[in-house]
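Fold tokens
===========
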Amino acid sequence: MNRKQLKAGLIGHPVAKSLSGDVFAAFAALTGEEISYEPVDCPPAELALTLPALRARGWAGFNVTIPHKSAVCGLLALADPAAKACGSVNCVRFGRAGLEGLNTDARALLAALEEAGFSPAGKSAVVFGSGGSAASSGWALGRSSAAAVTFHARNAAAAQALCSRLGETFPKTVFTAAPFEKPAGAPALVVNATPLGMYEPGRPPYEPAAGALCADLAYGRDGTEFSRAAEAAGAAVVDGLSLLVWQAALSLKYWTGLPGGDIVKFKQEALALLKKGS
């Protein structure tokens, strides 16, 4: 990348609790590049006017969070396989043909599980939620050959639709929907793909246990109620802040080609810098 300033940001509603700006400040410190990253609170009714305005301001692209992941996905000219299968996107760049999208939720979870030395292959998993993050988590688990994935959700229809869509993509994985309650049995992996712990208080109705791995897509500088409970129970934890940095590193690479070389090392350095500044 040349010395021209990278302009990008986050669109969502709300965005006040996002730490993405801090992550990209850490990236700027590590790369020596000038990065301008701006959160934009965009109500759904303003989405159609906001995106052209961002391009006109010279943005290279943007990240997408609640509640726009599905709506923006429907506007893409080009999409990666995870975005197509999930109907959800959270990293977009302005391409020649129009908007081009990458589902970094799915890719970040895959990378984080690999980093933790955990393979979902042949194992059972539970995902709390039925929105874009839940769909991305289900895609990652199907891609990893999980034996079974159960979506525990408050929106039963959305969970059933996810099961149908992902089941067509990954026929060897059994996808089922269940009420938003304590899972039966002892899943090897539990994913919180709800706003609980970040935009809503509380945590999913699951009591972590030693031997399980708990991944939380919600985040905070000091963790969340779910991640802290998992650590206290002796469960392995992939926390939301680590996933956020994974997503941001993948976004930076998508927009610019940076970071070069070892993206895992770059992610680890950025996370350490972020925690040092907290």
User: Anything to note?
Assistant: The first strand starts at residue 6 and ends at 12. The radius of gyration is 18 Å. DSSP finds ten helices and twelve strands in the chain. Residues 54 and 216 are 30 Å apart (CA to CA).
